[in-house]
Amino acid sequence: MIPGETFVKGTKRAYATYFLIVINTVIYLLTSYNSYFLQISQKYLWEYSFVPVYLTSLDGWLRIFTSMFLHGYPLHILFNMYFLYVFGKAVESYIGARRYLLLYFFSGFIASMTHSAMTFFSGVENLGIPALGASGAISGVIGSFLALFPGTRMSICFFFFIIPLCGIISSTYFIIFWFALQVIYGYLQLGGVAFFAHVGGFLAGFFTTVLLARGVKETLFPDFLYQITSFNYTGYPWYTYKPRGLGTVARFILIILTLIVAIGEVISIYSATTTSHDIYYFTLKADLAQGSSIYSSEAIVVILHSQATSSYLVAPIADDIIRILFNRLFYAGYIVNQSLKNYIGTVYFNGLITIPNLRAPPVQLNLLMNASYNSNGILVSGEGRATTDLLICKGSFCEIQGKWVYNLFTISGVGPVSISEIIYIPAILSIIVTFAAFFVLILKIDREVSLT
To answer: Which of 58, 110, 139, 272 is placed for a possible disulfide with 420 were both Cys, Cβ 3.0 to 4.6 Å?
Structure first.
């Protein structure tokens, strides 16, 4: 579903929107040129993306804003910037650049808060997966557009396979359908996209517009102007002198969807305060000698049951170099090991290890590492080198094909951190905004800023 022209004529040029498009594009080019502009560099991905587990530090909060300017691949930035152009120029034109930028960044901030708050629905392991992109902030712009211009026409194209089917529909239908998909996909736990970030950003933008756009209508369209025009405001054929705001059905659907989101947030924060799981997160950096030296870095989240450190869950690891090394360390017993409590010194391993849940032969690991462990037997820091067999999997069966040699790797661990410690503040902020949007809809306060 691709929107086209919104048929809302602006009052002035949307310079802030154009600036955001340019700066996002430039940053994407700068962060992806090493991979021929096909994807963001791993270095920038892990240093500046938003990772919820880092919210226990100042760096984690700063990443909320740096992540808004990062994009993973060409289509990611293309569609984000296109949606920003379609909806942003109309919104900025009527509320002004400064209010628009405030709305944009606040929506992006709440998007990250909601993404973190809904951890128990998207999967606790997602606390360690980086989130990036401007889509949360842009979702706020879409929410603002709905508050300002409900019912205006817009062109849209659906694609039936590769055949475009285009027409003109109400922007309200399109936006509510899009919002409903974000809520549904979020609860279905579909991977790869932070759908709840879109949800949080949208509600933040809708609510914030009610605060920021008060008085805009009276400034742009004074009553005496209406009195001297025979039909409508000259140059603004879409404007309704007595704006109706959202229709009854549209309002009802939004109220139900917002209530569903609020219930999920309450359940999530309750689950966080009652869970008995602790989180350790590790930063693993490795220099792989394979043809030429290859450097990789990634953050890894390990979730342990606080009463039994043998019960664990490891978040998905994207980078192959890091994943293979971490798995070897983990299954050899050098990440979590009760017998190594408070140990500081050198560990050496040369033998075979079995990787669970794989139909594969045992793999050889040669490891030499200077390591330090805490009182729970969790690795706090380590530095060393390793050589291991490489498994190549075809279908459900894996076989050994070659070796990987790690010239040097370093690993540092932080924890334990309770899940509630990470998501408590994001959940509170997210709930406040969600209920604020809910009451705006219930009390029909959005009609005060609606221009149609």
So the answer is: 272
